[in-house]
Amino acid sequence: MDGGSVVLTPTRFLQSNTTQESVVEKMRMGGGGIDNTSAVTLEWALSSLLNNPEVLKKARDEIDRKIAPMLLPHVASKDCKVAGYDMPHGTMLLTNAWAIHRDPRLLDDPTSLNPERFEKGGEAHKLMPFGLGRRACPGSGLAQRLVTLSLGSLIQCFEWERIGEEEVDMTEGPGLTMPKGIPLVAMCRARAFVGKILPESA
Ligand code: HEM
Question: Which residues have C-beta within 8 Å of that of residue 159, sequence separation ≥ 6?
Answer without folding.
Answer: 188, 189, 191
